[in-house]
Amino acid sequence: MSRAMDASRWRAIPATLGAWTILGLASAVILVPIVFMAGASLMPPAEIMKMPYGWIPEEWKWANYRQALAGNDGNWIYLRNIWNSLFVSLTIATTTVVLSASVGYGLAKFEFKGKNLVFMGIMATMMIPFETVMIPLYLIVVKLGMQDSYWGLILPFLMNAFGVFLMRQYLITFPNEILDAARIDGCSEPRIFRDIVLKNSGPAAATLAILAFRQQWDNLLWPLLVAQREEMKTIPAYIVKFAAEKSADEGAMMAVAAIASIPVFALFFTLSKYFLGGAAVFSAGKE
Length: 287
Hints:
- The chain is mostly helical.
- Helices cover 70% and strands 0% of the residues.
- It folds into two domains: 2-63, no CATH class; 73-283, Orthogonal Bundle (MetI-like fold).
């Protein structure tokens, strides 16, 4: 018996090594651009363009980060743009989780006439490209006087259909016995949702929060339309403007990109244990 087990273990070694090799190569492909960005952000332009490329800076040019933050004209508007992106992205991530969870909870655990029709209608909106509704949304924002404001940047993205789908699929598997026990104990439905459902939806909520944050953090098109003043623009708009200026060099551009990536990495590593555990969300049971 022990010999058979030992033989099976030895046979499993090549498969394990192959899997680790593939994962290592995939990690290297993903990490190379990040390492390049980090190194180039501390190099002078001539060193970045030199071939063969040296991954470690010969001359550590920390002034690139000062130029990135201060801007080529020294107005330090990038700090305000970073705050705009943080505020908009965090607000949208929070509202997306809460609103999508509430709608998903209703579709997963309550029976009412037309429930499936409502769900299919929500899913149908995922088939509509944002570009087709962008102009009507912009006209509404202008008519309501929300241009050049946080309301104009946030309101159209308070929640999305994918969030509803994700939370519904996760909450379908939530034990009904726990909900029934809470109702017997006299808990109201808002309290059940807040204290039981939402607090026990960590993997799905973290996954949705990271995806919603990243989507808005990288959003360029909508802020270009709504934010006309420099003080209301977000990071992507600043990067486009900074890269287009003749006085910007490659090292400072990389520094701008490196600074822009820090909040996304910080959010991911903060919620990584929930995000990685949320892989099971996509294989959640069906009705």
